[in-house]
Amino acid sequence: MTSTAAEPDALRPSIYDVAREAGVSHMTVSRVLNDSPQLRDETRRRILDVIEAIGYHRSEAARALSSRRSRAIGVVVDSAERDASRAALVAVQQAARGRHHSVVPFSITTNGQAGIDDAVAHLAAHRVDALCLIAPRIPTLQAITASHHDLPTVIVADTGDGCPLPSVAVDHSVGAALAARHFMDAGHHSMLHLAGPEDSVDAVSLTRSWRSVMRQSHLPAPLVVGDWSSDFGYEIGATHPGMDSVTAVFAANDRMALGLIHGLWTRGIRVPADVSVIGYDDHAGASHYLPPLTTVRQDFDALGCEAVHALLSSGEGPLEGARRRLLPRLVVRDSVAAPHPRRAPERSTSHRLAAM
Amino acid sequence: MTSTAAEPDALRPSIYDVAREAGVSHMTVSRVLNDSPQLRDETRRRILDVIEAIGYHRSEAARALSSRRSRAIGVVVDSAERDASRAALVAVQQAARGRHHSVVPFSITTNGQAGIDDAVAHLAAHRVDALCLIAPRIPTLQAITASHHDLPTVIVADTGDGCPLPSVAVDHSVGAALAARHFMDAGHHSMLHLAGPEDSVDAVSLTRSWRSVMRQSHLPAPLVVGDWSSDFGYEIGATHPGMDSVTAVFAANDRMALGLIHGLWTRGIRVPADVSVIGYDDHAGASHYLPPLTTVRQDFDALGCEAVHALLSSGEGPLEGARRRLLPRLVVRDSVAAPHPRRAPERSTSHRLAAM
DNA sequence: GCGCGTGGCACACCTCTATTT
DNA sequence: TAAATAGAGGTGTGCCACGCG
């Protein structure tokens, strides 16, 4: 039961209707709505009753217009196809609601400058009072950085030190180290990295960290650059020649890992018996892949909370360029085993992996 | 480059700033923004230039306030954890943008009436022009139906004939028939249905259709009621006693199918050699499950377009209570095979499945 | 005349209707 | 007549003034 509207062409009730009904001025109603302290309890109660009775809801539009604050956070998702960014969007949305804010979501679809312009126009029209950029690609990040708006902004991605904007992310250097350590503990020393696309901020961060770990361990760091999709993982698993010379693969997301395992399987290469695999994200379902996937878990809910917190607490905290990094966690399941001495383990077949 | 703001405490430019700069009245600017025909080309061009130059963006809040139309569609997602509803949300969002509308997303989290009240309050505050309810549970659907608001509303779910509200969905009776036919063509006649939860509108529709097909074919229709999660599928696969007497399972979504296959695997039951499986949705990744999952594909993008179309074309089309049903498609992959005569196929072990 | 509870008025930014040139 | 203007909402918020013990 929403309203007892009896009037014929009834517009939605306004604050004036409430005021009239309660026999007070609209300003008093406004104060009730804003929890102002200087009000007699009896007045407050009476007004609340009227609000309930006529089904009044404050107009966000009028509120935004008058207060010059929309209480909305613009959330732009740069790679909607990535599972991770959807999860992050939902998390941000939830966190925002907890802080009495709504979100204006926008997925960048068009490539290049046009897509960014669209996003900016949309968000500017909505006068969002903060901006959250999820899983950006590098050009998008640059464009946002360059566009000198004055909005509090947070990037949900593991940006490099060079980025002047605040960011919230899982610390991919820890993630990479976790995966590498787990492989090495199991006895692996030729590991392939199935990376995300080169224009993804997160992917380059993860790749960089992985390589750095490999370097420190004096191990080679063969690499193939993917596109996050399971189809790509499949192709690599099914056809990549370099697979022979490697005993483990670290995939930059679970979906590519899934496809990879399938692809390997078509060649008769078994996981983890022949090749071990670690994924990234801990996507829902990863625990039921065959084999259940050992993966690096990102806590998206926490990420969302942190992002919103950073945005809304920027009422003069010194969080200019703050970087918040959460710790990922290795979830050990069944896709890693000790390397199996297939063929001659050190035989250098005629493969060529992008080696740096 | 967003603005050449030189003023000190510069508010965002308003339509008046544009008008002053261009030497016209604000109304003329408004006409440009609304593509009104009666304008000299030269005037239009000049104004457009000014808009570009000072980085003007129309305020949606003011627009909504003044025109009494928010150009926003409220999208409430009832079961955020379901892959299908997320996919639908994204699709609706995209379609809405194409029609120059934004969406106000709201995920119901709290159970029961409270959750619905929250949603209604949020959407009422935003004065959305239309309402889209994705993947509702029955109580939610009832609540929305009962709440007599006047908004154009569309339900994205295969509601029964009893529902007075317009709805858009994949025709689950076709989906069920497709799956059943495929199983039967392969020679199966004892099939289990791993259903979605009993309070889900889509799940009951699918279950009902499935049972009706089984009845028509004079086959038993054993059923277990799940919760969409892969963990649930796993439990059933790993421990359900009724599994012995069945040669095929039709899961109400791919995720449960994934868990099921994993669970079966732990018992040494192989898919499709020992048991065949068909999923539902064609979730991204299903093509790389082991085995690649034969499933019933729902076209969420089309669903989103239809939903938005129904909502925005309701400018006096007779679509009161219209039902739009899209055809799902069977995607044949590798999880179905002819039934393998394990043990005595007709042996009635001591299982008891909810048999109706 | 001090404080608490209230009311008045301007303003935010656009759209629409009526009116002028 | 075609093009442009003036003015009135629509619905809140913020600031200041006012009445009452």
Question: What is the gist of this entry?
Answer:
With 356 residues, chain A is an alpha/beta fold.
Provide structural commentary:
Two copies of one chain form a homodimer. Chain A has helices at 15-22, 26-33, 41-54, 60-67, 83-98, 112-125, 138-146, 172-185, 201-216, 230-239, 254-266, 300-312; strands at residues 72-77, 102-107, 130-134, 153-156, 167-170, 191-195, 223-225, 248-251, 276-281, 294-297, 323-326, 329-331. Chain A contains twelve helices and twelve strands. Chain A is 40% helix and 15% strand. In chain A, the strands form two sheets. In chain A, strands 2-1-3-4-5-11 form a six-stranded parallel sheet, sandwiched between helices. A six-stranded mixed sheet of chain A has the order 7-6-8-9-10-12, sandwiched between helices. Chain A is elongated and about 85 Å long. Chain A folds into three domains: 15-58, 434 Repressor (Amino-terminal Domain); 71-170 and 301-326, Rossmann fold (3-Layer(aba) Sandwich); 172-298, Response regulator (Rossmann fold, 3-Layer(aba) Sandwich). In chain A, helix 1 packs across helix 3 (41-54) and helix 5 (83-98) packs across helix 12. At the A-B interface, helix 4, helix 5, strand 2, helix 6 and helix 10 of A face helix 4, helix 5, strand 2, helix 6 and helix 10 of B. The structure holds a DNA duplex (21 and 21 nucleotides). Chains A, B: GO terms for molecular function: DNA binding. Chains A, B: This is LacI family DNA-binding transcriptional regulator. Chains A, B: Residues 13-67 form the HTH lacI-type domain.
